[in-house]
């Protein structure tokens, strides 16, 4: 921990002309006396640190001190910072912020403006609107369990709403299709499984550790495993003219077959499951399933039950 703190102090000083000892103490949750001991240790290692006295004084590096930056170009460093900023929108920000500080510190002053311009050209914000507290807590627990190779236990609600108790060996946190997932070896199923974080309840880390297994090749294809499940049906959808923007949002433009009324036909295939029913119902009156007949019946029945609920509540 001390080594990490010393390196972090050096990085901060590389990026700022001066830092207050109290600010460093607050950031690293240690005493001011400890910070001054750290500064002395850094000085002894050959990194020149200067203490400025007075009201606006503080701690800084000797003028002209910079780390060697010959490994990566400014464009490559800017690309890394862009990726880190984007990931930080939906993942633990603190480690990434420190890494961005490290990268920024090795950019020379004469190219800093161009570097910051390139690093801020694009931001991919993965975060949802609103608060994300519970999800972030799950991420933190799972990340620590992965780092320590500790088992975790939770209750899991599948797509049909069925609850089951699971004990798993967490391997990887995955962001896919606007959601976070956990790839883990499930003791109950005795195989690798994918768990949606939003469906995990009562997540508890356990003291038992595990030896990390090699993920089978077929289980590395996270999204394709779901799509290639074999339970496919051919689906024909008709989007009405006022809903063309929805068709263009969800399907490739080349999949849209224009029709005379200004709408379009989409012919595609999906695994048939609860997700598909919810996905199609989410279009509301903007789209209609033309084929297959049994899917139309399922959606008609669910729509009728929704209507029944709202009519009962109204009366």
Overall body shape? elongated
What amount of the residues lies in strands? Answer: 15-25%
Main sheet attributes: strand count, strand direction, barrel closure: 5 strands, antiparallel
Q: Please compute the radius of gyration using only Cα atoms.
A: 27 Å
Helix share, percent: 40-55%
Secondary-structure element order, as H and E? HHHEEHHHHEEEEEHHEHEEHEH
Q: Strand order within the widest sheet? A: 6-5-4-3-7
Structural class: alpha+beta
Terminal Cα span: 64 Å
Q: Report the average pLDDT across residues.
A: 81
Number of helices: 12
Q: Could you tell me the number of beta strands?
A: 11
Low-confidence stretches: 223-228
Short précis:
The protein has 315 residues and is α+β, with helices and mostly antiparallel strands.
Structure, described:
By secondary structure, the protein is an alpha+beta fold. It has a five-stranded antiparallel β-sheet. A four-stranded antiparallel β-sheet has the order 9-10-8-11. The longest helix has 22 residues, at 293-314. The radius of gyration is 27 Å and the shape is elongated. 42% of the residues lie in helices and 25% in strands. The protein contains twelve helices and eleven strands. Helix 4 (74-87) packs across helix 6.
How is the secondary structure organized here?
Blueprint: H1 2-15, H2 21-28, H3 32-44, E1 49-52, E2 58-61, H4 74-87, H5 93-105, H6 112-119, H7 133-148, E3 150-157, E4 163-176, E5 179-186, E6 191-196, E7 200-209, H8 217-220, H9 222-227, E8 232-239, H10 244-250, E9 256-258, E10 264-271, H11 274-281, E11 287-291, H12 293-314
Antiparallel strand pairs: 1-2, 3-4, 3-7, 4-5, 5-6, 8-10, 8-11, 9-10
Helix pairs in contact: 1-3, 1-5, 2-3, 4-5, 4-6
